[in-house]
Design a protein that fits this description.
339 residues, alpha/beta, D-Maltodextrin-Binding Protein, domain 2, six-stranded mixed beta sheet, five-stranded mixed beta sheet, globular, disordered N terminus
Amino acid sequence: MKSTAKVLTACLVGQMMVGGAAVAETVMRFSDFLPTTHYLTIEGSLPFMEAITQATNGAIKFEHFPAQQLGRSADFVRLTRGGVAQISVVGVSFVADAMELSNVAQMPGITNSACNGLAAYNSILDTTPLRERDFTQHGVKLLMTYMLPPFELATANKAINEPEDIRGLKVLVASRSTELLVNKLGGAAVQASSGAQSYEDINRGTVDAVIFAPDSQLIYDLPSITEYGTTNGNFGGQVVAVIMDQNAFDALDDETKALFEKVATETEQAICQHTDMKKAEALTEIAGLGNSLITFDDEQLARLDAVAAEIADEWAAEADSRGLAGTATLEAFRAAVAE
């Protein structure tokens, strides 16, 4: 007996294709772990959906389910593969087991901007096992990538004068690589369950600090309860993958497939440019709200980068031990970043 999700997918496919062309009206479910107020939604997902609908004269429309309304972010790969959603926005860190090689683009100390990271990530998708390992084998297509710029540290009440001042702090982090870095520096990393929860985590004293994108710090009103921070720490970033059920994509005609890929490429480029620009603006705004921000000098950055390099090498070696080509992926990514 077919599952409800599989029957639904079959119905959608039937609507999409008649004589090799998109017809009538197809409604795709677009699942998102982010709220509608998040800049990745406002600048990325919503314009993407609008562009597709306009370009197809309304033949393809979307039903948006933000803030994990269709299920937990950790389940988005399964839900997308099963046809519950045709497209999903998921933080790679929330599905680390499924998308482990993508963590290479979240490593601290390697990229210097979101667009730099995106270009390097895209360039190694097919020259390493990354696309096959993290997406294809799970029955999903990587439609586009929202790359965030290097994250910065913000603390509730401990001044930060050098990287080692993290020692003894409980720090909320968004990725496994940043968790490893914090622990290596003598802090105690706590994996974030959601950005929205970060305010309460700091306000209640559950954590002492957070490592997030500066513009995300503003979205969650963190500068109102933090006092100190960094401007150039490069504590690692975040990869947000927009995935599509491979069966749903394959059911589209060639012209519509090309449209999806064109709009996706334009959208991910717009996002990296937006987030790079917004980081500088956000840091200025955070300082204006009374937070004292430090810019590490070259010697301090060299110490931090040395620890970050150790973290990346250890991650790669551990991945190698499980047959995941971690070192090859890391070396390819570092080379691509440097180009």
